[in-house]
Design a protein that fits this description.
Blueprint: E1 7-11, H1 40-52, E2 57-61, H2 71-79, E3 86-91, H3 96-105, E4 110-114, H4 120-127, H5 132-144, E5 151-155, H6 165-170, E6 178-182, H7 200-205, E7 210-215, E8 218-222, E9 229-233, E10 246-249, E11 254-256, E12 265-266, H8 272-284, H9 292-295, H10 304-307
Helix pairs in contact: 1-2, 1-8, 2-3, 3-5
This protein binds S-adenosylmethionine and iron/sulfur cluster.
Length: 309
């Protein structure tokens, strides 16, 4: 039976204002020609076509989506597409201080914010150039703008943030944050199994966590009496491929049926029925599972900043 694919992750740029060591090389990315990247009109057209194929939820990602000029206007246009039930965005938070309120007004429903350390020195080591304060101000601005249930994503890194697991969980004591720990996926130039830490480490560090269910790819936990939740995302140790309901479009217009596969379907230049057919072909081509663990590295030859996570 064909599976239900109702979630589109749309990468709107491969550029970023940080250089997270698990995501991209130290020198960042080779800047693509402006014309190689989908225009705002193309992004809207592809989103519209995906919605006509069953997509109900769209997440903007990158690179860092907030460095893309016109992102607020794009959000407004995507939210206006008939059939879009949820518009979300994943960001490193650096530019949120100024953009949170406009994004909220443009119709963004939910935010995921990457926050890999609560220690300023460690944060700048992981991101190679980031200032923790900016991201914390971004999170505060998002709350002030009315975003609720903000997801705070931390990629588990053995030598960088494993010691902070309890501190992250403490963030959920007073606030309705969803703190999510993501297992490192070794990708292209950033493949580094030495830093990999199973999400089991979270349950060992905070044994009070009680399982309360699931939310998409995350297993959900809560410390009894705390406001927020803790999510474990285990692409490596517990595969969730069989339940995967998502497709991805890269910033240069390729549809990826699976994050870890080489298979890509070019969408650029297609319109109307042709575009729809190509998207349906991508949905039908979703593989049953990935082979990350067996092969030691993702089969996908791109780093995460090119795909959007
Ligand atoms: N720049 C935005 C951000 O950092 O949130 C959006 C793009 S980023 C590629 C999307 C998500 O992918 C982030 O939560 C990031 O932590 C995650 N990510 C990037 N590289 C990863 C890797 N190698 N393994 C696991 N997660 C990764
Ligand atoms: Fe940039 Fe996000 Fe990748 Fe970090 S994870 S380098 S913020 S795209």
């Amino acid at each position: 039976m064909a599976r239900k694919v109702d979630y589109l992750r749309l990468s709107i740029t491969d550029l970023c204002n940080l250089r997270c060591r698990y995501c991209m090389g130290e020198d960042g990315v080779v800047k693509k020609q402006h014309r190689e990247i989908l225009s705002l009109e193309e992004l809207e057209e592809m989103a519209q076509a995906a919605v006509s194929c069953g997509v109900k939820k769209i997440r903007l990602t990158g690179g860092e989506p907030l460095v893309r000029r016109g992102v607020v206007d794009l959000c407004r246009r995507l939210k206006a597409i008939d059939g879009v039930e949820e518009l979300a965005l994943t960001t490193n938070g650096v530019l949120l201080r100024d953009l949170a309120a406009p994004l909220r007004a443009a119709g963004v429903d939910r935010l995921n914010i990457s926050l890999d350390s609560l220690d300023p020195a460690q944060y700048s080591r992981i991101t190679r150039c980031g200032d923790l304060q900016q991201t914390l101000e971004g999170i505060a601005a998002a709350e002030a703008a009315g975003f609720r249930g903000i997801k705070l994503n931390a990629v588990l890194l053995r030598d960088y943030n494993a010691a902070e697991i309890s501190e992250f969980v403490e963030l959920t004591r007073e606030k309705d944050y969803a703190v999510r720990f993501i297992e490192l996926m070794p990708m292209a130039v950033c493949a580094d199994w030495d830093q990999y830490l199973s999400a089991e480490a979270v349950l060992e560090a905070v044994p009070q966590l009680e399982r309360i269910g699931g939310d998409g790819v995350a297993e959900l936990y809560r410390v009894p009496g705390y406001c927020g939740t803790v999510g474990l995302i285990r692409p490596i140790s517990h595969r969730f491929c069989a339940d995967c309901n998502r497709i991805r479009i890269t910033a240069d217009g390729k549809l990826k049926p699976c994050l870890h596969s080489r298979s890509e379907i070019p969408l650029r230049g297609l319109h109307g029925g042709e575009l729809r057919e190509a998207i349906l072909e991508g949905i039908a081509a979703k593989p049953e599972r990935h082979f990350l663990q067996e092969k030691g590295v993702s089969d996908c030859r791109r780093d995460m900043n090119e795909i959007g996570g």
